[in-house]
Specification:
The chain has 27 helices and eight strands. The chain is α/β, with parallel strands linked by helices. The longest helix has 34 residues, at 341-374.
């Protein structure tokens, strides 16, 4: 028999989903109805750890990156670190103040992309989107790699298996985010607040010991010496070094833009709550960054880009076996003491919050991907919410890209961080330029003086932000290009070209299928319809297909069979005549025993003879319920349908015949709470209608 497979695919989903439904529900939870989206919105206390965990946690590695760069010129260059910290603080306040304008004016969640796209045009918007997508992927890779290194200071096994542990954490974070934003936010809030509290306690206790008690606090590397790669730097070389150290310290600003992209996830009033969260995040990040830099100077923390060679202890290089702990770990050991309770708590919280800092990207990337998909720059699947009302496809795509980077770069945060910063400052700069244009456009129309004064003040903030972030972008490109920033730029170019190609494809298809104003071949009624029923044997599926074809009242109707085996063809003709079937039977010879080619050629000949006519090919099919039965039936139909779909003027109709096994599949599906048809998961569980109370009451029995 020749048959099709379309409904069989539905039953395949049913049988496979039966096997995967239970573990899926255990891992990510029960599907939520679309009308429960409002329940997933975040209050400020949860939005802070969800969207600000990246800039808050970056204080765990940003100070170390500053010292690593300065170590090139030796310990003597460390006295520049407070001034670099001041420059980073000024930049942080500038960016936070600028983005507070963004979230008020563009609360839809498009963030930098929407600002640039609206005010600077699609190309600028796509550039910003490319930069943000690269930055989000790097955020996951850098944060988790840094967290693994921090955890490795207490657990050696983690350092020995860095890549494996980093990929495992990515998988765990992915599952947590697939459960939904609010649920994952509750899990992330505790370690984030513990980390913030631990850092503030460390800063306060360190300041008290140093200033009030006069204790001499020394880090584990206080007695170490640094062999400078370039001793006695001066002039342009020193300025270049300081600029490179500043650009590394700007890692503390990564993730600031995530709040502007996540405004729709806040509770109402969304813009006000997002602006408040931004200000709170900026204040916390600046205080912690400056405090750690100050304590690092007070405790004589020494770091080197190549510790095995350049870090000297007792006149001898420490060697390749030496593990260089992060700055925050060394400061905590100096302030609290190695192995103390507070030291262990802060070490664990630091590792956790670095892992969870990736959550900023897990919220920003899928939301931005959804907006880009809506604008037809990315596949439409990224715009669809999953079972838990999260953008599941975007989450999985982000996890895969980040895991690939971790494997390629061996989970080394120092190598990965060189790729960082470029994307975020591209988006910062273009966004602020776009905001300046936004205010200029509104000022040209606004007559109210109070509103004009507010707009002029906001424009001044965004103008300064555009200038400052643009200057930093130039510094980052100059100082980091050869150290790995070119990889980030390459990634941006790849995203840009890919999204442009996707948009071009969608536009071309939309233009091709657009409904015309005047009638064309697709809207004009065909002159005639030729119906063809494919037949291999006379059985119930064939008789059902013939009965259906007669109901269509086509201009011509015929049955078509392929002569592969002469004996079977002869038996078919004899039974056709014996039964007195009124539909004419046409037999096509196939000397090479092919089935698909003769049918295709016959259909094409009909179309050539009558171009304005339509050919309707009717295929009887089996509907089966077991996976192994799919291998035994309908294989010829699958190939035939694939060819017929590419033949203009041909319509393909499947007439299903359900075997007993399909009933078994239905019964299995009915045991569950709902029929798992395509799209049913996103609609949520279907509530069964309740019967009226009167129907629930038992009727009194009637005795005869």
């Amino acid at each position: 028999m020749v048959g099709g497979r379309a409904p069989i695919r539905t039953l395949t989903i049913l049988s496979v989903s039966k096997l995967t439904d239970v573990p899926k529900r255990i891992l990510i939870g029960r599907a939520l109805r679309s009308d429960r989206l409002g329940e997933t919105l975040l209050p400020k206390r949860i939005a802070l750890p969800v969207f600000a965990s990246d800039p808050l946690s970056s204080v765990a590695y940003a100070p170390g990156e500053v010292l690593l760069v300065l170590s090139i010129a030796g310990v003597s260059a460390y006295h520049f670190s407070p001034w670099i910290a001041v420059a980073v603080v000024v930049l942080m306040f500038t960016v936070v103040a600028s983005y507070r304008q963004n979230v008020r004016e563009y609360p839809s969640g498009g963030g930098d992309y929407e600002v640039a796209n609206t005010n600077l045009g699609p190309r600028a918007g796509l550039t910003v989107a490319s930069a943000l997508l690269v930055d989000y992927v790097l955020t996951v890779a850098v944060s988790i790699s840094s967290g693994i290194e921090n955890l490795g200071s207490a657990v050696p096994f983690v350092v020995e298996h860095k890549v494996l542990c980093a990929v495992a954490v990515i998988v765990l974070l992915t599952l947590m985010n697939l459960r939904g934003v609010k649920e994952s936010g509750k899990l992330f809030a505790i370690p984030t607040y513990v980390f913030v509290a631990g850092v503030f306690i460390m800063i306060a206790w360190g300041a008290f010991r140093g200033i009030v008690l006069g204790d001499d606090m020394a880090s584990p590397t206080a007695d170490y010496e640094i062999k400078p790669e370039h001793q006695g730097l001066a002039g342009f070389a020193l300025i270049f070094l300081l600029l490179r150290a500043f650009s590394s310290g700007c890692a503390a600003l990564t993730g600031v833009e995530a709040i502007s992209n996540g405004v729709p996830a806040f509770r109402k009033p969304k813009s006000k709550n997002a602006a408040t969260t931004l200000a709170l995040m900026g204040g916390l990040a600046v205080t912690m960054f400056c405090g750690i830099i100050g304590l690092a100077m007070a405790t004589n923390v020494h770091m080197a880009e190549k510790p095995a060679q350049d870090l000297i202890h007792n006149g001898v290089p420490v060697g390749s076996d030496y593990v260089q702990n992060p700055v925050i770990s060394q400061v905590a050991e100096a302030v609290f003491g190695h192995g103390s309770f507070l030291f262990m708590i802060l070490a664990a919280a630091t590792a956790l919050v670095l892992f969870l800092a990736a959550n900023t990207a897990y919220n920003g990337f899928p939301l931005l991907g959804s907006i880009l998909a809506q604008d037809r720059y990315l596949p439409r699947q990224l715009h669809t919410r999953g079972d838990r009302l999260a953008f599941s496809n975007g989450i999985v795509l982000l996890a895969g890209a980040a895991a690939l980077l971790v494997v390629i770069y061996g989970a080394d945060s120092t190598r990965l961080i060189q790729l960082y910063i470029v994307g975020v400052f591209v988006s910062f700069t273009l966004s602020q330029i776009g905001m300046v244009r936004h205010w200029n456009r509104h000022l040209a129309k606004e007559k109210d003086q109070n509103k004009r004064r507010h707009m002029i003040r906001s424009r001044a903030i965004n103008t300064f932000g555009a200038f400052f972030t643009g200057l930093v972008l130039v510094v980052v490109l100059v100082t980091k290009f050869t150290h790995g920033a070119w990889v980030a730029l390459l990634g941006m170019c790849i995203f840009y070209v890919t999204m442009t190609a996707i948009r071009r494809h969608y536009d071309r298809v939309a233009e091709e299928i657009a409904a015309p104003e005047t009638p064309n071949d697709d809207s004009v009624r065909p002159s005639r319809v030729h119906s063809i029923v494919l037949v291999s044997k006379i059985h119930r599926p064939t008789l059902r297909a013939l009965a259906y074809a007669k109901l269509m009242r086509s201009h011509t109707l015929e049955a078509l069979s392929i002569n592969v085996d002469p004996a079977e063809t002869k038996a078919l003709k004899e039974e056709w005549e014996r039964r007195g079937i009124t539909v004419p039977l046409k037999v096509l010879d196939s000397p090479y025993r092919e089935i698909t080619r003769p049918i295709i050629e016959y259909v094409k000949n009909l179309r050539r003879e009558s171009p304005r006519d339509v050919v309707s090919v009717i295929i009887p099919e089996y509907v089966v319920g077991h996976w192994y039965e799919h291998l035994l039936h309908n294989q010829s139909a699958l190939r035939l349908k694939g060819r017929l779909l590419f033949t203009p003027g041909v319509m393909v109709t499947s007439v299903p015949y359900q075997l007993d096994s399909s009933e078994a599949a239905k019964k299995r599906a009915r045991r569950r709470s709902e029929w798992n048809a395509p799209g049913a998961v996103r609609r949520g569980p279907v509530e069964k209608p309740r019967r009226p109370k009167e129907q629930n009451k038992k009727e009194p029995s009637k005795k005869g």
